[in-house]
Amino acid sequence: MTYIRPAFRHPELPRNELGFTRKDYEGAISTLCAGCGHDSISAAIVQACFELSIAPHKVAKLSGIGCSSKTPTYFLGNSHGFNSVHGRMPSVATGANLANRDLIYVGVSGDGDTASIGMGQFTHAVRRNLNMMYVVENNGCYGLTKGQDSATADIGSASKKGEPNHFEPIDLASVALQLGATFVARSFSGDRQQLVPLIKAAISHRGFAFIDVISPCVTFNNNPKSTKGYEHVRDHLAATGTVDYVPFKQEISTEYEQGQSKEVTLHDGSVVHLHKADPELDLNSRRSALRLIKDYKAKDQILTGLLFMDEKSQDLHEILGTSKTPLRDLGEAELCPGQKVLDKLNESLR
Amino acid sequence: MKRIEAVNDFVIKFANVNGTGSASANNMFAKSLFRMGLPISPKNIFPSNIQGLPTWYEVRVNENGYLGRRGGVDMMVCMNPQSMAKDIQEVEAGGYFFYDSSKPLDLRLMRSDIHFIGVPLKDLCQREYSDARQQQLFRNIIYVGALSALLDIEFDVLTGLVSDQFRGKEKLITPNVRALEIGYHYAAEHYQCPLGIRVERRDEVGDQILIDGNTAASLGAIYGGATVAAWYPITPSTSVVDGFDKYCKRLRIDPGSGNKNYAIVQAEDELAAIGMVIGASWNGARAFTATSGPGISLMSEFLGLAYFAEIPTVLIDVQRAGPSTGMPTRTQQSDVLACAYASHGDTKHVLLFPATPRECFEMSADAFDLAETLQTPVIMLTDLDLGMNDTMSPPLVWDDKREYKRGKVFNEEQLEAMIERFGRYLDVDGDGIPYRTYPGTHPTKGAFFTRGTSRDEYAVYTEDGDAYEKNMQRLLKKWDTAKNLVPMPELIEANKGGSKVGVIHFGTSRDATLEAIDALAAEGIAVDTLRIKGFPFHKSVDAFIEQHDTVFVVDQNRDAQMRTLLVNECLVSPRDLISILNYNGTPITARKIRDEIIAVLRGDNVRPLHKKKMAKESV
């Protein structure tokens, strides 16, 4: 939504551990439609990064093409961003991550960008367990080209034009689970309470953290016959439970019922706590997550929340065994073997 | 009957079946001549197949150092009944046909004008070895032994090569030497050795090495500081990344931790490969990919983004005959235009054209300096001929004092000290090259949002037409800057003052072109040559065309792509440039170039001889 945002901020805005205010994590003013779910997600990313006390310039934001891929302009204005090629953000993120393992990588994509044109790259980034947070802002349609169905649209769901979709939808959370994503969650752009801790956990997770966020398109796909409109999603939500993210060094104060809760300690010492609503969910079991997604879908419900976590996995750098120093910081001394080595090599080629 | 007589100047071709272990025997043969001080140029002519189809290995020996394909075959070593009929036809009159005489030759294939030399390889093997696999492998070594007698190859050189090859596996040395001896003795006893064609030790190799261009390019990437390689397997470029992997394992492991000072990712396709390179380069690492024609097509969208977003990108294109289901194992120079103008919108890319393994090494290292200096894609265009064949080359040299040119990058201190606003696409120095920052450099300064062109000089989103035009003009200015940074063309004048006839060539046409020019000189025709080593073209390319009345352009593709590029970029009339083309999948020969130049100069052909100056003035 285009509007004028006052530059004035209250002088005593709360500051995080690094001394930054929430404002330091904001970006340019959004040019998306008023009420777009994507803007809520941007706000949740801002909130999560502020609360995590991440130095804003230590994040790299990457996206493909589409409405969702425009959003990195609208958050973290002090971070480098890269609006790449349609469906190809995963490869750019992979290269960026290889160059500097010390930054935090936030990828934002849409359902067209990920489930259609970028399906190949998405699946392979998952397989490699690339250390990044990958958010799909999923509205079931192509917004920037005026409302065509996307590959995540449910059968029978109709966009503004009224034509129901006939093709089997791709469930990206299930795909991510099957291909080995080590953190999988689903959320709703209208549920900030759930989304912010999920983003915090995803950013702290080492490995590929996937969040499928249902984010209604107010202009082209928010009508009564759409299964990705605000009304339908609100009426059909079910959650795996309440997620708490507890940063390192902070005591866990909330008490949960035995057997209904699960604590996962991440590699940086922070803890993700899930108070389960469904005792069936086993957070470390892909099979359990996949089954529950199906069970709820059969009941015409959308299961949201944290679905799966494997906190002990190896990310791409660990699998490859690359240097602890970011590759981009290596210089001639480490990289260039020099003439003496060439002399020997020349000799062996005679 | 005529008998070809030649010392240190002949072409020998081996006809083998793919997957029978002939490659190492043939390499041993070629290297033995090299170690006798003789210039050689071995070339693999192989199918897209792992086992069973015909494959050839052609070695030219020439003590004058002519390394291009000459054309014609003086001796054929026939190890493949499948291709025998055609192979016999290929031998020059008076030449030699070496075959396995365990079975009699088909009389219908006999020619009366060539010499047949039969050695019962199969029978000799069966007598010596009981194991079927050994029979096959040693059959190859036995024919090398026989050739040693027939061509007068020093036997000690061969045994020395066997020792080198099996260092660490000593028990394999004796049976291999034994196989060489079996062949040698049979030939010596049954034929008058040596034949009319033979070798004699010379000192014409000096300190040169034998290496393929892909390996040399991979070493260039290591020396040039590449840390990220992303690729998708495709013939004939695969061995670039194989080489990078092999030598990184030796040269790039941190001795303390055992960690790798590099990362190689086999991508899901070429789109992802170039995307990874762009991502890594954007984030400050030196990264590259290697591919061939079909990969260039797939990478084109991303190349456009890298051009407009001004991200250094290094790409090695080992060209092959197109298309994907074309002749992937045959050579061509047919990606020139696809690379020069890859992508949508107004794009053009810096190209490098190496002609020798040493240039593959140097240009691959230089490509990183160029790409980072210019903040744009740099494509090194080699081809299968250079990339996959062992080629004689001056030794690889590196200046230990050399520092990488990382281009215009602001670091944290510079940003901290900066008072004015940072403009990612601002032409501060007037050379069209802006300053960039790596992600994560400074908490509050220097961050920008990377996108194609819908932005102003400060990388802020805009769709304003004036901002777009201004940016495109700056990119042109940068292109002009590039003209003086890419390698200069190499001019060779036939005599002082130069000739009125000129030949422009590039890449692997070099050897054949220079040999053809020597042949023409011997016939009294002086021809100047200009070898293009980079694109955009240096102004001396325009001058060369201007100064010569007749200008030939040697292209190893059907559509005269380099000629088109010259016409397009140098504002010359197409009439001014006469094409010499070769596109059958094998390297161009000196004979072809010489014959076509002669035909035009003699007027055998209706093409115009003289430039129409009017055409140029009307441009």
UniProtKB/TrEMBL annotation, chain A:
* Record-level Gene Ontology MF annotations: oxidoreductase activity, acting on the aldehyde or oxo group of donors, iron-sulfur protein as acceptor; thiamine pyrophosphate binding
The organism is Zhongshania marina
**In this record, what's one Pfam family?**
TPP_enzyme_C
Q: Which InterPro entries match?
A: 2-oxoacid:Fd_oxidoreductase, THDP-binding, TPP_enzyme_TPP-bd
UniProt protein name: 2-oxoglutarate ferredoxin oxidoreductase subunit beta
**Ranges for domain Thiamine pyrophosphate enzyme TPP-binding:** 65-213
Q: Which UniProt keywords apply?
A: Oxidoreductase
- Reading the lineage from the top rank, the first entry is Bacteria
GO biological process: what's one of them?
Answer: cellular respiration
Q: Does the keyword Oxidoreductase apply?
A: yes
UniProtKB/TrEMBL annotation, chain B:
User: What are the record keywords, sorted?
Assistant: Oxidoreductase
| Keyword presence, Cell membrane | no
Q: Which CDD domains match?
A: TPP_PYR_PFOR_IOR-alpha_like
Q: Which SUPFAM superfamilies match?
A: Pyruvate-ferredoxin oxidoreductase, PFOR, domain III, Thiamin diphosphate-binding fold (THDP-binding), TK C-terminal domain-like
Sequence ranges assigned to domain Pyruvate/ketoisovalerate oxidoreductase catalytic in this UniProt record: 19-184
Give GO terms for biological process. Answer: response to oxidative stress
What molecular functions are annotated in GO for this chain? oxidoreductase activity, acting on the aldehyde or oxo group of donors
Q: Does the keyword Oxidoreductase apply?
A: yes
Q: Which residues form the signal peptide?
A: none
What range(s) does the Pyruvate flavodoxin/ferredoxin oxidoreductase pyrimidine binding domain occupy?
A: 220-411
Looking up NCBIfam families in the UniProt record yields:
OAFO_sf
- Please identify the protein, giving its name as recorded: 2-oxoacid:acceptor oxidoreductase subunit alpha
